[in-house]
Amino acid sequence: MSRRKILFGAVLLVLMTFLATSAGFLYLMNAWSSDVVSTLRVLRALQVVKSRYVEDVSVDTLMAGSIKGMVNSLNDPHSIYMDNKMFKDFMIETEGSFGGVGIVIGTKDKLLTVVAPIEGTPGEKAGIKSGDQIIKIDGQDTKDLALDEAVNKIRGPEGSKVVLTIKRGEDTQDYTLTRSNIQIKTVAGKMMDNHIGYIRISMFNENTGDDFIHKLQELEKQGMKAIVLDLRDNPGGLLNESVEVASQLVPKGPVVSVVTRDGQRETHSSNLAVPKYPVAVLVNGGSASASEIVAGAVQDTGVGTLIGTKTYGKGSVQTVIRLDEASAVKLTIAKYLTPKDRSINGVGIEPDITIELPETKDKDVQLEKALEVLQSKL
Fold first, then answer.
1. What is the residue range of the signal peptide feature (predicted)?
2. Which domain holds residue 338?
3. How far apart are CA 44 and CA 66, in angstroms?
């Protein structure tokens, strides 16, 4: 056990002993400021539950519950308390692989909603779509389920099954999915007709920026004269990776500004002297967060054309702060602004050309429009 933990335990024991009497608690309530009083109230509740509850409960369990409740009180679905297992799962996901069914979820209008399925995963193959509402997980109603709890219930050992009850419009259907080890290759591309390159980014993890640059170089060697960047159903990921991608496309200047609650601004910029070729970016309601950073930069700088439907609208920035060796808090610490200082949080980005993708998907009319737009610029 670390010296810090021993010291904290000793201080907590002294405080809990003092607060064990109502007299001691009331004395401090009268003597200290409101912030201190609130803190002491939490410790008093901890002492009362620990000493009086009908069953023995560990202090670790009670403190974890307190922290979780504290973060949940922010009413921000992107801020969560992560125990050791959740933190490990989070790190694995951003590093490029994790166990589950391959859907990224969030909350919209206080409902558990699919942000986007990940290509080639059980969720995508089963036909789950961006915007689907998950109303039950293995028969359990998700109405009062926190986002992190829902993620934990959907994930599980490879080969095991999970049943998601999905509501789409007025229709409700059960999807039985077999979990697999999700290996995420985030960048794929090819050369299309008329020397127009096509690059698809499925999400932004630690490898996305480098992989995007390599794919660009590969297509440039084949004589690429214009590029379609497909960010449809891209739920986002790491901010720095989205900046690296945007910096290959937009001219020198701001890509995104991160603004904290006290007004401090950190601007991430591109150093590209001159854009190399015309750009068309495909977006839809599953394009969120980091993908909206790229789309917003392309639109605001005028370097390209956004085609598709309005994006998801997640314009906040989270950071993971370790509390100790076994837990962390993922906390919203800032909002981001596009190069023209637009905040898209809860609003989304309207494309320059709006085209709905037909349910039948006989042909990709959004991609066809992107090729048409780029062809006119060559």
1. none
2. 184-377
3. 12
Quick count: other Cβ atoms within 10 Å of Cβ 64?
16
Active site residue 140: no
Q: Which of 289, 291, 299, 327 is catalytic?
A: 289
For the ranges 48-52, 237-241, 251-255, 286-290, the lowest mean pLDDT is seen at: 48-52
Does residue 338 share a domain with residue 255?
yes
Structure tokens at 198: 């096509």
Mean pLDDT (whole number) for 310-336: 89
User: 248 is written with which tokens?
Assistant: 């290959």
Catalytic residue among 108, 215, 314, 330: 314
Query: Which residue out of 248, 270, 287, 318 is catalytically annotated?
Result: 318
Percent of the chain surpassing pLDDT 70: 87
pLDDT at residue 179, as a whole number: 92
Give the highest mean pLDDT range of 24-33, 267-276, 353-362.
267-276
Domain CATH code at residue 120: 2.30.42.10
Regarding beta strands 80-82 and 327-337, do their DSSP bridges make them parallel or antiparallel, or are they unpaired?
antiparallel
Whether 38 is a known active-site residue: answer no
